[in-house]
Amino acid sequence: SKAKVFEKGKGTDVTFKDVAGLEGAKEEVQEIVAFLKNPQKYTDLGAKIPKGAILVGPPGTGKTLLAKAVAGEADVPFFSLSGSDFVEMFVGVGASRVRDLFKQAKEKSPSIIFIDEIDAIGRARGKNNNMGSNDERENTLNQLLTEMDGFGTNSGVIILAATNRADVLDKALMRAGRFDRQIYVDMPDLNERKQIFEVHLKPIKLSKEMDVDFLAKQTPGFSGADIANLCNEAALIAARKDKKAVEKQDFLDAVDRIIGGLEKKNKIIT
Ligand code: ATP
């Protein structure tokens, strides 16, 4: 979510191997990869390729990662922007950013546009929000809808968006021919946490006693992002103690730290 407004349409080197768990979501986006790789296969049969899909799920569960993996697997450029970048923007800037982004993506099609935190732009109209000006948010949303309607089904640009709050989104976004697919990206269960650990432990030098089952059991309620953070935190703790390998205790200390952090975060929210 810290992505720059434009990641100037570079390819990504993320693939499905980097995305642990999320089997259902990966299966659903497989079809998008297939469209991007070989649009003609679909259009020759008269099929209309969907324009977009919304990835819905809690923070840190891998929505951005999955969108990048789609671009990586299809080997197409990835353009991204985040809804929160439009907060407190001057009048006209949001809409013109959206216009520019679509223009660039079309020039480089087949390509992916990824809009993170789409709820910051796409909240149901006429409600209060944290944007600088309600009008400006509406202009940005309207421009997005115009762009989506404006390009043909077979432009080769697919738009993925992500949100934690599908319930607040303007229904106009979900209409047929816009984001007419929702893909759920859930918090990982025990087995998925194990798989996420396997990805993030790879670069880390572990003591022999370490086992992934143990770590997965110690981390209920952790998202993929929390697990990535935990692995790095444990390595930092071990390094501070001049250890040659990261031990179980370092992970336990890191778990305590992260749970402390999560509790603080929740206190602020409630
Ligand atoms: P947000 O809603 O906060 O934007 P997100 O769902 O987009 O979060 P990501 O930004 O994709 O989450 O995840 C952050 C990082 O956490 C990833 O770059 C990756 O290192 C790790 N991560 C999250 N989910 C997974 C996963 N399923 N497999 C492997 N790593 C993951």
From TrEMBL:
Binding-site residues for ATP, renumbered to this chain: G57, P58, P59, G60, T61, G62, K63, T64
Domain of life: Bacteria
First-to-last residue of the parent protein present: 201 to 470 of 719
Function: Acts as a processive, ATP-dependent zinc metallopeptidase for both cytoplasmic and membrane proteins. Plays a role in the quality control of integral membrane proteins.
Family: In the C-terminal section; belongs to the peptidase M41 family. In the central section; belongs to the AAA ATPase family.
Gene coding for it: ftsH
Protein's recorded name: ATP-dependent zinc metalloprotease FtsH
Subcellular location: Cell membrane; Membrane
Domain AAA+ ATPase span(s) in chain numbering: 49-189
